[in-house]
Amino acid sequence: MATNIFSIGQSALAAAQAAQATTSHNISNATTPGYNRQVVVQSTAGGINYGYGFIGQGTQVAEIKRVYNDFLNKQVMASQTTASSLDSYLSQISQLNNLVADTSAGLSPALQDFFTKMQNLASTPNNDAARQAVLSAGSTLAARFQSLNDQMAQSRTSVNAQITSSIGTINSFATQIQELNQAIIKAQGSGGGAAPNDLLDQRDQAIADLNKIVKVTTLPQSNGSMSVFIGNGQPLVLGDQVSQLVPTPADDDPTRLQVSIKTSSNATILLPDGAFTGGSLGGILQYRTETLDTAQNTLGRVAIVMASAFNAQHKLGQDQNGALGTNFFNVPVPSVVANAKNHVAPPAATATATISNPSLLSTSDYRLDFDGTNYSVTRLSDNTKTTSATMPVTVDGVDFGSTGMVAKDSFLIKPTINGANGISVAITNTQKIAAGTPIVTSTNAVTDMGLVTAGNTGTGVVTSATVDKATFTPNSTQTYTFSSGPPSTLLLTPNANVSVTTAAGVTTPYAPGAAIPYSPGATITSGGVSFVLSGTPGNNDKFVFSPKPANTGTATISPGTVDANYAATPLGPAVKLGFTFNSTGSTLTPNGSVGAVVVTHTDGTTTNYAAGANIGFTPGDKLTTGGISFTITGQPANGDQFYVSPNTNGVTDNRNALALNALQTANTIGNTSFQGSYSQLVSLIGNKTNEITVTNKAENARLTAIQQEQQSESGVNQDEELSNMIKNQTAYQAAAKIIQAASDMLNVLFTLGG
Question: What is the pTM of this model?
Fold first, then answer.
């Protein structure tokens, strides 16, 4: 019996030793990442039937159990990968938000300063300093676009670097997990099936660390190994097989790194960015797709639309040399990249993209495909597809074209990606700024008799010249030729009735073509033109009248504008478009320099008139001819005339500068302005940053709560372990007393036996 007690004491002593060792192990690993608290599980060693009953044989250690809650662990994993993704996204977008919203380094101050300098130029169009300030502000604006784009490009480079770094870390963890799998299988085999707790903790921690980078799913295997999957279920660790991730340039964009997986059979499979929905890698990929691409394209669109609209208006102006304006800005062209898998046999396929309507530009990229029969242009932002059997195809203000494409060829086209990077000021000479407008409009404000006496040799003098609009034929010319005779006469051409009233008041009529006796100081009247001729004209002296009677109605003509058609047929230096009002029928009669006319009525309808045709007049209608447009308002009187002529002295003209200034607030990008579009970008990024910040804060709070719950169950509590240590020590001492009691009993037996 004493021997049995001795054995019971030994089992108690061994159990206490195991419990103390386990407690000590817990305490020493209290701060070890991934460590799960371990406990000793004891069970009775059974008993022996001595007839009068069973006497116990002590205790035994059944197992060293790892306190592990699989449900909580999966909750932590799910929350951790989401929090890591949000942390990564927030880190990137915060930098971008600070960049675009900067009140001093953002685009808004440079844009405002440029148009402020343009307003100063409009106030003093002939001031060289104001002109130089516009060029300087334009260069500053272009440089600001480039600076913002450069920092976005650096962010793109940083994303590529993080993808490469993340892939290296993922591969390292995959190898570590595979090695731990093998160690666990081996330990379980040699340990009689007992769980190698520390190895399991190490593997779980490696998987948890991997999960921070890329969202993983796990599947335990019957042999104790753990299979790990990423993306859409691609195996990263499967048994003793490890797949490696590799950074891969996109087939249609070599500057854009993507993630591919190299399987155990050495096959490479491209994983779409959307397959990564968690972890820091998923966060940076999501940032690039959702925010960075949109931001850079939006900035490029603002640059392209602003430069294109400014150029279009600038080319409608006139510079200080009297020439039509040229491009003020250099506008970059879309990016067109052939897919690396396109056919290479000559002739190689080519694709083109030309921006035909900047105001319709989107912020999306496009893919041009050919299936052997039809071409398709896909807007990648929403996968809207436009299909055609022929090229070119116009989508969102971009003309897409191609040659030599065969089935399965494709091109990636980014219309606005280069916009901010490539914009620059195209002119350097201040005189080339087209602040003026190449035409001027006018009326007959005062009567001009249009008298020409050039080349006369006599002393004949014309005085008291007048014109009667009621009887004068508009745009007609009268020429009086003097003949010294004898007798001295005047001859009117073209032939017309003439009346002569002498100084004595005697009036004599003369038939058309009749010679008119010359009487110095007499008043000569014909066709509404009257004048007094005095002195002694020379033989064949001519007196030519081309009167322009002053307008007497209330009508006025607008300053006039030109459109893109004007550049094809600008007015020559001596060309003057004239329109004479005829009260009979209320029409405008054009002169011979006027071509076809389109009248746009106030209700938006139009009427076309052939060259030379009388034009129906309604106050406020807009007349357009040869790219020139103007309106006549008010009521003209019969014979009132209106003119459009080249601007031959436009160095102080500011009309085109005013039109250029109007672009600042015009809805040139959809339904908003340049500033409005950029403000939308700032708002978009700001709102997204706030959304990610709030979501990230909530997710991290959730993660902390789950981790605390997990640690309350599986973590090491130092106070609890200290209590266990005292309890184990007491149990050990009690077990020693059992052994001592058994020893004393044996000694008594030995004494009795002696």
Answer: 0.84
